[in-house]
Design a protein that fits this description.
This protein has helices at about 10-20, 35-50, 65-75, 90-100, 115-130, 145-160, 170-175, 200-210, 240-255, 270-285, 315-325, 330-335, and strands at about 10, 25-30, 60-65, 85, 165, 190, 215-220. It is α/β, with parallel strands linked by helices. The protein has four domains: about 10-80 and about 170-220, P-loop containing nucleotide triphosphate hydrolases (Rossmann fold, 3-Layer(aba) Sandwich); about 90-165; about 240-305, no CATH class; about 310-338, no CATH class. It has a five-stranded parallel sheet. A two-stranded parallel sheet has the order 4-5. Helix 4 crosses helix 5, helix 7 (about 170-175) runs parallel beside helix 8 (about 200-210) and helix 9 crosses helix 10. The longest helix is centred in the middle third of the chain and has 19 residues, at about 145-160.
């Protein structure tokens, strides 16, 4: 959802100037995700270095979700804890969804309740972010839709009874209580790198404006600025050849301009992570001696934006299987892996 007409735009250099003014100005920058926030922090530090500064205050840059959670944590000191709902962690919320599904008639027919709980939790977040209530109740529903609505009803009942909320609804809670919170209010908020805003986010931003906060938008590259580039389609033998060609192309771009950052988008990254890490490593750092036993571990000049799952380590995976056996059954295929 676009809000371009509601808030003014600010260029990236002006964002850095606001941040460089210090904490006293009260400028906070929120980003759609943590990775973009870290990248912006690095750019800000580089900007400060180019200004011949030897020391500077850390920029207040964080993801939107972390910003909302920070306000909630600050609110714990301004509102009696008995009045503020307990914020469930994502793990706790997932466990609650599992118990709701296990306790339903539909859940008795499912073979993979934990996986279903994961999808239901994600659907619940979308329902809240896009404020689909009460319209959701009027949507045509199949058996799955009816089950989902019943699970949501029971989930809401349980959290209400125990005075709890979750990451999907905490933004609505903060929006409702923001004026009452005895916390340090934000003076200037810059939303950096957002392509769209959910209705839930817009409601919160409008609440900030109503309380005297200045909300501005900024983009890594101005939408009005013309971009020069070329598009080329290349046929590859297989996925390995495609990854190799991408690595060679990326190295050539960096060798031509060492200050340039190269990004490569990979659909289904989890399926190709190991191959990408191996092939890019051989192209970017082809010194085979660094791979020999006893050599100093090398620092690769690239980063794959997907970590290794804990369950990929045999000991951790076995631990999760043991925990899964407590009080319930698991699939034969999973149990036979140990």
């Amino acid at each position: 959802m676009s809000i371009s007409s509601q808030f003014s735009r600010v260029s990236l250099p002006d964002v850095f100037k606001c941040l460089a003014a210090g904490v006293g100005v009260g400028t906070t920058v929120v980003t759609p995700n943590r990775r973009l926030g870290l990248a912006l922090k690095n750019k800000f530090d580089y900007y400060q270095a180019t200004q011949k500064n030897s020391v500077w205050e850390s920029a207040d840059i964080l993801p939107f979700s972390a910003f909302i959670e920070r306000i909630y944590r600050d609110a714990l000191y301004s509102i009696p804890i008995t009045e503020l709902p307990v914020l469930l962690t994502p793990v706790q919320a997932r466990a609650l969804w599992e118990s709701v599904i296990y306790g339903s008639d539909e859940g008795q027919l499912l073979l993979a309740v934990p996986q279903t709980a994961k999808f239901v939790h994600e659907a619940w977040q979308l329902v809240q972010a896009w404020q689909l209530f009460p319209r959701f109740k009027n949507f045509p529903r199949n058996e799955g839709g009816k089950a989902f609505q019943e699970w949501m009803r029971r989930y809401e009942q349980i959290t209400k009874r125990h005075h709890q909320t979750d990451d999907a609804r905490v933004c609505d809670l903060i929006t409702e209580l923001y004026e009452q919170l005895q916390i340090k209010k934000i003076k200037h908020l810059i939303c950096y790198g957002f392509d769209t805003f959910t209705p839930q986010q817009i409601s919160f931003l409008e609440k900030l404006v109503a309380t005297g906060c200045t909300v501005m938008l900024s983009q890594p590259v101005s939408r009005d600025q013309p971009r020069n580039g070329s598009l080329q389609r290349v046929a590859c033998v297989d996925s390995r050849d495609e990854i190799y060609r991408a690595a060679v192309w990326a190295r050539a771009r960096i060798e031509a301009d060492s200050t340039e950052s190269v990004g490569i988008v990979v659909p289904a990254l989890a399926d190709y992570r190991n191959a990408i890490h191996r092939i890019f490593g051989s192209v970017m750092t082809p010194n085979v001696e660094s791979a020999l036993p006893g050599s100093t571990p090398r620092i690769t000049p690239f980063n794959v934006s997907l970590g290794i799952a804990l369950t990929s380590y045999p000991m951790i995976d076995t631990l999760f299987q043991v925990l899964a056996l407590v009080g319930r059954e698991i699939e034969f295929e999973r149990a036979s892996l140990s």
